[in-house]
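ingest -> validate -> predict -> emit
validate: passed (alphabet ok, no gaps, 151 aa)
predict: started
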Amino acid sequence: MGIGDDAVEVRAQGWRTLAALHGLIETTLERALIRAVELSVVEYTVLDALARQDGWHMRMQQLARAAALSPSATTRLVNRLEERGLLTRILCADDRRGIYTELTPAGRDFLERARPVHDAALVDALRDAEGVPELRELAGTVQRRVPAPGR
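emit:
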């Protein structure tokens, strides 16, 4: 193997490690959120992204980027959350073609109930990952960057 090949393998191994950690975290979050509040990780991601916006709303294409979804998948997701009363869609005042998605008061309350479940599951997933030799270093790095719940 040449120098170039070694560099490619190092990057590939790094990517595989990152993907494995992501999978472990996402699975842990999904199980905890579904069990406790009947919310998927991507649904939580959408509610959380909206809550972090000024005015608690975003254009649909912004929401698609935040949730890493296609436009059609975002529409289906927003439809489901709207049916549950957690989101609403409103027309943009200055561009009648633009549609915003906005958290409802019920959506904000629901997110506040879901957030501690999410945060605790994230801490658990990172702790579990630190017990896996291949994931230990990366999980430790992420753990140092994630503030403890309540901070």
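The chain has six helices and three strands.
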